[in-house]
């Protein structure tokens, strides 16, 4: 159920009976010459809405801009700085718990958001307000991703290309797929040595590694592969929501301090 | 032009030549038994996208959740607290200026956001980073709004109902229009005395005034009226964008300190 | 009762029995060539002290500097930025509740403070620490203000001039009243079109509209009119304090969440 | 010159030619059964205004509430927490520099403010915005204070009593001077051992040491002594202002880094 | 060179000529029944000091407590929350640049610090204050680590055990190595399925996975292996410092915005 | 007991039974040409560890860098700005209370930290989380310090020199003691007049008073005197810890509000 399509009286049963919510988050950032800036938030939104539809759990509107300063040198990349992003998501989430929501999944499609969503989740977990977990679609189906393409890549590569070919084909510039590959980093293994200098990750921005912001070879991506990824990831997300729903809230809270001395004051 | 539909290389000309951006902001909050929680962000997004389409100026993705704690008692209302909202919008905007954007319109459809967007605009104005103005669609066409309906209302009333009837008719519960009126406050003049006790505005939450969160009588709202409002407001927004674009940046910056003594050290 | 004139043992009965406090707030900012920078805080203080005297409720010292960056281009205008102002007032108020105060009126005479005081009031209301309302003197007697003068004005105009003529006549430069009018904006209706460009409020600073910072025609202001305003506003404030005092604290707290399902877990 | 009594055009010469300002700060806190809560801010204000009058330098309105949590257990003590106090004073001061003020004296009469004003002064000094110093009246005339009374005391004692007897005699409860002494700590040397446990200052609140909040014996305080203190302190403040005014601004800025190697890159 | 052992005049040449600094950071947190809470900060300090000794670059004192809330359920684990940790490290680093340091290595031995040090590094990089990189010793010698032991583990396992056997053998409880293994998680592959529920990392605290806080089998760790690790990691760090030192500062700064249009205004 | 040397299971009894902790804090800052930058943190650590050893109370790792901007002009001085320092120490302390610690001594050897540690202690005291006191070693043995040397001094003087001669004699440049005296301020009484201009402390940085950063004459300092100081201060600290341990926690909490009226609602 997409919350924003409903009127408040229609939500009464949900507020009375349910406690799960899905929050899609992405980014608005360069994805090479072949994919739109919307790529990440489109993927997150599509997956979150579909899983909410199938399960009946509540899905919120999408947070479209995330933590993407590492792509800023490419035209149009938008971003919010990490402290403001975390605090916005925290306030957004805390306030949602006013309606009885106490377990949430951040359906995320942007790697730059991961650590910040985990940090927000930890804040809520430590003070026992809610149990929120970050879920990155491609982490849920690693084998399928591995099999997808010869030269995968974390950004603008075949997995994201295929997903957009499936979700929003009109936004893929099919005639630029070869350019995307040729102007970027086709083979990730080629850059690891440059990026890690004696063990330190020395780059801060994508532009340092890729002239066009692309990593991977997307020329073999297809809408059919995208559909397969979408179905598989949706299935994982549905199961995660059901798993969450089946837990007692107490199970999701922090374990207490190790008992230093059975029978003692602690 | 909707930024998120484009690839970064396609934005090169804009970055090189243009300096205007449109940012839609709304809320996700109760709008009575007849309108979806999405009402405000749908309106803001539709107007911003349309004006951007007509003028070619850049429109960003929508900020869907705003400052709505005063509606929180009604199921599903989402909100971000004011400090976090302001800081998020400020960071969002400052970072956008990295691409040469120096004048922005916050296309807003939620009264609760107004003062916060003005405050962010002032921060950017005072340090001369950018010139950002808040624009509320109904403020741009006050006479047309006045003529629209016998019993107008600021929230869930005929103007918002008509707009959604035009923009997203499938989301209007037409069979609940009379309920909306009867369960809420049909005539705003009836409540002013209750809300202002000897000059002080004593209420903090919508629920104190309206049992169903509605103000106004929307039974005479129609999609045709909505279209008229939409066209008129879009026209105003287009003119505002053109006005902004025609200014020299220096004209938009703060006037300096009054000269205390011509020829003095200041 | 003005708290600062008393010794702590003298306040014992109040702390034991009462829960109301009055906090005067103003600004120190330009008010044209005829009125002192103190105008707003003098008015707030005079009204707050008088109402406290008549009712016996406690009045705190005055916060003399407020949120006035929009007047900064005129010599001597002082201001505190909004986040720091809000946090100062919040801390000031929270700590006062340590003595059993749980309802407060911010007696305000500066428009630029209004939204910030409302925001602080909301913070205290939401966490149920106290019930604080903002009260702007001229909002309490709108009809009288309307009748006062042909050309009223929000800043430096006849209402403020008359008040200072009554409260602190020695501070009014009577010989500059005509200058004040002639160098400023006599008729507010003349500037609305300039200030609102297609619905957007495009100005950030008073100087953009008025060369001398004045709005309205104060040449017909008199101390007699000022006394009338003062008496009428004081009377409203007294009634507001009595109204507050007569409430149960629970009445002043937020209404709870709408019950989604009678008998359910919420 | 008291800034708030003037109109903005009258301040033109000052803005054009001068750079010194005096800011009075005190507290609103218990001062025993004989002195009003206003004690500290009355003293600060009287000294600041007098010195400004004599020298022509600009005096701002008073900040009446300071950092007094250590007196909170006594009825009516008001306070602002340290972070909010510092940030308010910092914003207040930074914004005043917009008018060309670059050197300030915080005329302070409350010990609890000292370290916070020094910290704010350091912030302004380090970024070279302004040179602000904290000045505590009794620190300027230590010998005179020492000679004043047999049993001096830092709070509610003879020095403050004499000052208020001079400045605002109607606010001194003369009939409670002996009570003040008898219910408090007459001889400071008697409590040092209690307060410092093996070198650690173990108390946080005045109440831990004094039942009525008083330290010292004020039974020999007189208005004449108060006048003498007032005159002597004012004289010191006048000299300080003249000293500040006579400095080049560069003299007041931080010394640079020690040159590590003459002729090197630094 | 360890900065704290020197007097300020002895540092003159360094300040005049050099720009590199090494900052060791660790944690004070449980490391099982066999290793001291100091484990991580001992390792970081030993490596940083050794590399500084060999190269002559400056090493600062160690930050001994880091971001370890995920170990808090085990006795004695200390931690600082992420926002305060980041801001402390940022201030620590910014102020160090006052002496001409503009490139730094955070020598880190605690996984929980990584993302926070990267975030601080990014802040300094984006505003071009300094170039700081996080370096985690075991990331610099992955192959050696892999070969070390049959059952490696990220926390309390053989690599950390061997390091402490080499650096501070008196702090290893050799008689508890088997207990460490048996009471914890010997084989990491066994827990991945529990920790990732349909792609979401569902645990927040180490205790959820390991009863004694240990991961890996350390029974085959030896001081000799530790020495080998120490030498190899030190060598990597030395090379990293030399690499940093050999860079022009401009090389280390962010690349600029992609030029949208050669010859345009940007 | 030094916490970081222990494994977590070894701390079980302490967590179960004890509630005292000792936290050493110093600085890393110039101490003249004869003493290392480490001076303050070495002293704090040595005293804290020794007292913990003698009593069995828990000692944490040392916070090596403190609030020292006033020494920054001398090579190598490190510092953290006050807000970040306070917040780091507060988080460090609050989290330690998770293990049942509710009373702490900040063993401090740097004057610049005092007020900030007191402020943190107050925060914890006011919300009743813990009772933390700042303890400065030389404040605990004032008579002994006074007798130590003819020309004492607060920084780099005989007391600190003697302490380092005892604790870490290899770090004292014995051949620079006369230089230290001759290049600095031998007699503190000579500078008071310069530092206090008509009662205001006008200096912000040590360099304004002392060319080499030294105050006092350390030529008569010896390791034997250092040992005497060390023993005496340790003895005081041990007694303080025992005193703290012997208190009921309720004794250490704030006294409540003075009862305004026995039998009343408060």
Automatic annotation (TrEMBL), chains A, B, C, D, E, F:
Q: Which InterPro entries match?
A: Creatininase-like_sf, Creatininase/forma_Hydrolase
Hydrolase among keywords = yes
Write down the required cofactor(s): Zn(2+)
One Pfam family from the record: Creatininase
Q: Does the record carry Zinc-finger as a key word?
A: no
What would be an example GO MF term here? metal ion binding
Superkingdom, according to UniProt? Answer: Archaea
Q: Which organism is it from?
A: Salinirubrum litoreum
Q: Which UniProt keywords apply?
A: Hydrolase, Metal-binding, Zinc
Note the SUPFAM superfamilies from the entry. Answer: Creatininase (SSF102215)
The identity of this protein, by name, is Creatininase family protein
